[in-house]
Amino acid sequence: MSRERQVMTSATLIDRKALSVAVFFGFLSALIWGAWPVLSRFGVQKTLSPYDIAALRFMVAGLILLPFVLKKGTGMLGLPKTLVLTVGQGIPHVLLGILGLAYAPAGHAGVLIPSAMIAVSTIGGWFFLRDRPEKAALIGIFIIMVGATLSGWQSMSESGGQAWLGDLLFIAAGALWGIYTIASRAWDVDAFQATALVSVISMLLYLPLYFIWGTPGILSAPVSEIVFQSLFQGVFAAILALLFYTKAVTVLGATRGSIFGGLVPCIASVLAIFVLSEVPSLIEVAGMVLASGGMIYIFGFRK
């Protein structure tokens, strides 16, 4: 009996340790995703342009993941499906998001991009995949939409400024992410394989255009900015966030693991206060809380 108790105690400790590690990785992925709009806007406000930051992201991630793609190829996906995934999560999605950060606060991106993604992927999945959402999921989407509207209300109601343009770009970026989500579910895409293919294809398509017809700011920008954005965009945002999230989901399951996505708006807004001195209004705070709550609510009912 004593032996059995020792075995059970040991197993419990292992389970608790695995759970703690999974939660830690989940928070890391949420932290990186929440930091992405903040640090991208920080880069845009310094020397680099949105086109420079996108180039650094896919140049670094593409080179790191190129050996994997050369070895595995596109697998069962083929080139047409790979291009669809690239549109949804590659250079078009990233460029829209970073261009939006040239006009609107990072906190708006933290709310609007994931909100648009969830709305498009849920409703699109209903129409294209016959994946009818439960009533609770529709309620969650409604809460998210109310939160997103409040977050962008001030910029939409102001006659001056171009924050509204940034908000529209964020929504477009989120919509592309939603298309990627629908496609990856329809084709049962491996997350790491998709990341590798999207990064490499984006690198091959974008960098020649950037260097030949663009104005490469990375050739004259301070080395410190190049190194910082290369590491964050190409390693942390493009690769590690996915690996951390996958690790969390492996232990916690898809439903509980996906709750970390609901933390992104709050993390982005809080980091924007300290890094960018962008203090949200009370209406924007209410929108952020509603959007985060709606995400957690809808994830909680996702099978």
Descriptive overview:
With 303 residues, this protein is mainly alpha-helical. The protein has one domain (25-300). The protein has twelve helices and no strands. The protein has helices spanning 2-45, 50-72, 78-89, 91-101, 106-128, 135-157, 163-186, 191-213, 223-252, 254-258, 264-276, 282-300. The longest helix has 44 residues, at 2-45. It is globular. Residues 6-11 have low confidence and may be disordered.
Give a quick summary of the entry.
The protein has 303 residues and is mainly α. The protein has 12 helices and no strands.
Tally of discrete structural domains: 1
Instruction: Provide mean pLDDT, rounded.
Output: 85
Q: Which sequence of SSEs, written as H and E, runs from N to C? A: HHHHHHHHHHHH
> Which spans have pLDDT < 50 for at least 5 consecutive residues?
6-11
Report the major sheet. Answer: none
Identify the overall geometry: globular
Counting helices, strands and paired strands, the structural category is mainly alpha
Question: What's the total number of strands?
Answer: 0
